[in-house]
Design goal:
Cofactor: pyridoxal 5'-phosphate
Shape: globular
CATH topology of one domain: TIM Barrel
GO molecular function, one term: catalytic activity
CATH architecture of one domain: Alpha-Beta Barrel
Keywords: 4Fe-4S, Iron, Iron-sulfur, Metal-binding, Pyridoxal phosphate, S-adenosyl-L-methionine
Strand content: 5-15%
Strand order of the largest sheet: 3-4-5-6-7-8-9-10-11
Largest sheet: 9 strands, mixed
Number of strands: 14
Radius of gyration: 24 Å
CATH class of one domain: Alpha Beta
InterPro entries: Aldolase_TIM, Lys_aminomutase/Glu_NH3_mut, rSAM, rSAM_sf
Organism: Thyridium curvatum
Helix content: 25-40%
CATH superfamily of one domain: Aldolase class I
Length: about 475
């Protein structure tokens, strides 16, 4: 199957669309009613770029040195081999050299045992569980992990952590205050967020929903959203009873953790609601386990395509929203998955989070935007990192996102340019980063208003975002002990 995809042969799935050449010919004949037939018109070959490099990069990992391509692309194999803390110590022992470069002391090295100790101290202080797919683990440079942008996103180090900002709250965006029923956030006039699950294939340290997602940690008792029919029904009833709601985001957690029949159930229910015109499934799957889109032994992709097509027949739209933060997350597997989504007519948009030491420079962010666009993934948002517990070392000052937008805008087509936004604390919603009322670099305080939001005493409310303290001109923060 995968060899056929790589050679550009049409996918032999039941959901594949027919080649549209006969339709095109019919249209030409109608336009030229008195012209001669064009039956001899040659078929135009599909436009394809250079074939992706098909390196079996996962075989660099000793544990997976003999794993076949079909196994690695299998979602079931990926779930069975996901790395969690009880496996992590042995895994790190197998991939790390005796010493690795220390990013905090230039020219110095850190022993493997010291790094592993640092990781587990970080896990004990993190607000998110550690859970990482084989795909991501295979994309990390284990000879220099402390400088690796993927390691920095998913594996906590205690030595990096800074004291939390004093204005931080566990539910930084105030989602619980905007929840009329458990697992549903209704903040905007015409859009709501439905949270059917609270599990993800890989957990990000900087998750804005760290109050609810994943298992309990030593620092956070989670308010989980279990996929029960009773809770879902309350959410559906609320949505149906709000004529002003037209747009639903199905997230969590991650929509990847919905079974195919659950994906069908949610999609069909939303399509049947007269007030809902569009909805999106949010999933980090394309970033952390893209092989699932190529795995015909798994029904998730087929269910997504079925829902997308059913929505189109109903005059509505469905999209997949994914979350890729760095170009290194994109491999030849991602490229093939993106091509398959394109062929099946599924709209894909990406939401990136700006992270210090990961993608906070012009070259990295520009490369990411272009790679996304080249793979027909719309670069939709770049978010200022939320004020989340234990990740102060990953946040940037607001000035960074302002500078990035200023320098990148005009270097790429406008339709491929993402919106650079701040999701305001206390439920102010998304605002363009550059739309602040004021920004004091000395105090690090930026102020915004959200005129469209009037629910819950938000009318004329001023929202404040706070830069990391260690980035201020005074009062630098010290690393945690």
């Amino acid at each position: 199957m995968f060899a056929l995809i790589r050679r550009g042969v049409a996918l032999r799935a039941s959901t594949c669309l027919p080649v549209p050449v006969p339709i095109l010919r019919g249209q030409i004949s109608q336009l030229h009613n008195h012209a001669e037939a064009v039956a001899e018109m040659p078929e135009v070959p599909p436009i394809t770029g250079p074939p992706p490099t098909e390196e079996p990069f996962w075989r660099k990992i000793p544990w997976w040195s003999n794993v076949s391509e079909s196994d690695f692309l299998s979602y079931r194999w990926g779930i069975a081999n996901t790395i969690q803390p009880h496996k992590l110590r042995n895994f790190l022992g197998s991939v790390l050299p005796d010493e690795v470069p220390d990013d905090q002391h230039e020219g110095k090295m850190q022993t493997r045992d010291d790094l592993i100790s640092d990781v587990f101290k970080g896990i004990s202080h993190a607000s998110m569980s550690t859970r990482i797919t084989p795909y991501i683990m295979s994309r990390i440079d284990w000879n220099d992990p402390r400088h690796d942008p993927l390691f920095r996103q998913f594996i906590p180090l205690r030595s990096r952590m800074l004291p939390d900002h004093p204005e931080l709250t566990m539910d930084s965006l105030g989602e619980r205050k905007d929840s009329p029923v458990p697992g549903l956030v209704h903040r905007y006039p015409d859009k709501a967020l439905f949270l059917p699950v609270s599990v993800c294939p890989t957990y990000c340290m900087f998750c804005t929903r760290s109050y609810a997602i994943g298992g309990d940690t030593s620092t956070v008792h989670k308010e989980s959203f279990k996929p029960t029919r009773r809770r879902w029904e309350k959410c559906f009833s609320y949505i149906e009873g709000q004529p002003g709601l037209h747009d639903i985001v199905v997230s969590g957690g991650d929509s990847y953790y919905l079974e195919p029949d659950q994906l069908h159930e949610i999609g069909e229910r939303l399509i049947s609601m007269p007030n809902i015109r569009r909805f999106r499934f949010a999933s980090k799957g394309l970033a952390v386990a893209p092989g699932r889109f190529l795995d015909d032994g798994d029904g998730w992709f087929a269910a997504l395509v079925d829902i997308s097509n059913a929505a189109k027949r109903a005059g509505k739209s469905v999209a997949l929203h994914t979350h890729i933060n760095h170009p290194n997350e994109i491999s030849w597997i991602t490229e093939l998955a993106s091509q398959r989504l394109l062929k099946e007519g599924v709209t894909v948009r990406n939401q990136t989070v700006l992270l210090r030491g990961v993608n906070d420079d012009v070259e990295t962010m520009s490369t990411l935007i272009r790679k996304l666009a080249d793979n027909n993934i719309s670069p939709y948002y770049v978010y200022q990192c939320d004020m989340v517990e234990s990740i102060e070392h990953l946040r940037t000052p607001l000035q960074t996102i302002l500078d990035l937008e200023s320098r990148i805008r005009g270097t790429i087509a406008g339709f491929a340019m993402p919106q650079f936004v701040v999701d305001l604390p206390q439920g102010g919603g998304k605002r363009l980063a550059c739309s602040h009322l004021s920004y004091d670099r000395e105090t690090g305080v930026s102020r915004y208003m959200a005129p469209a939001l009037t629910r819950g005493n938000k009318e004329n409310k001023v929202y404040e975002y706070f830069d990391p303290i260690d980035c201020l001109p005074v009062r630098p923060a010290e690393p945690c002990d």
